[in-house]
Structures are given as C-alpha cells and as structure tokens.
Model the fold of this input.
Amino acid sequence: MAFYASQTIEKGWSRDLLLNAIKMDSFGQMQEQIKSHNFNETLPIPNADYANTVFKDNYNLGFLSITEPVRELELEKRLIEKIKLFVLELGKGFSFIGNQHRLEYNGKEYFVDMLFFHRGLRSLIAIELKIGSFKAEYVGKMNLYLSLLDKLEKAENENQSIGIILCADKDHLDVEIALQDINKPIGVADYQLLLPKDKLQNLLIDEINKSEEINE
Done:
C-alpha cells in the first residue's frame, strides 16, 4: 500500500481515483510494463534515465467520466476542462502551455494537440491524442512537430523537445518498428477511461431516472 499512499500524495488523487488505481492494479502494471519509446537511443543517458521515470506507459483518464465513445477533439476538450487533474496524472514538473498550439513554417500551419513544458527535463513536451489504436504514421507526424518545436520555439538553454503519442491501445512490436530509425525522442502510451464501479453505477441510475421522468 506504500506505493498507492505515495502516489496519492504526489498526484493529489481523490478517493475515486485512488480506488480506480487499486482496481486497475497500477502498481503491478508499473512493475510489468514494457516501455514504448526510443529515449535511450535519442537522449543523453542522464536525460533518458530521467525521462524513463517521468513518462508512463499507461495513463488513467477515468476522471473524465466518459461512458461512451468520443472523438479526438471531444477528448481534448474534456482534458482541457480538467487540465489540473490531467497534469496531476502526468506527474510532477509539468506546466501547461496550450492546446491546438499553432506552429507556422514555410507558409504552412501545424497544430499540436497539447503542449507542456517539464521543468526537470527542461524540455517542451508535445502530446498527440488518438482515440483508436496506435498507427505507425503517427510517429512521422510527431517527428515533424518536434523538429518544428526545436527550430521555432526551443530556447538555447532548453533540451530537445519530447513527444508523447497517447492512444487508446498499442502493440509494443508495432511501436518498436515505427520508432526504429527515428532520431527524435518519442514515447507511445495508452490510456484507460475506466470509471470506478460505484461512480459508473451512479451515472447509470441518474440516466435511468432521467429516462423515467421523460416517459412520465
């Protein structure tokens, strides 16, 4: 239980989020998970080791109370509405810069879903949200965004930008081959929208009651 106690203090988890983490066996997953990134190949060893502790392989977005499929822009909107909780789930040291962050180069516009800065890594962190499974083409798009961020926005005293592709699910072997010849630091993580059982039950009861009121 020491793991869950420390995570509750560090991330400011509510009772619901704590119960959700226990139900999902977050501790066991953290011990067993295979890292899906190329940090060891693209970052200096001290930075790579630090990045390995900063970024997770799986994020719990249960605080969004999503009970049905949503589109990527809707997922982004809900995360922005609860940005404090999202930053807490990401971990310590993250500062939110903005969403749909605009980059312009050679007469073309590009938009990063969510942009953060990590104080410890001293790096811009670009996050791309995907509602489906990981696809190899996502890496090329993120690689372009990181090149633009390093060229246009990275300060001289900052380290190279890091990208995180957040998908509904991923296959580690697909990620490994997609990142094989990429020279920008990119990680791929998946997320869960699982709600605690009691909260999901309350939502269902509310929906049933609303339906009965309409029918009356």
In short: The first strand starts at residue 58 and ends at 60.
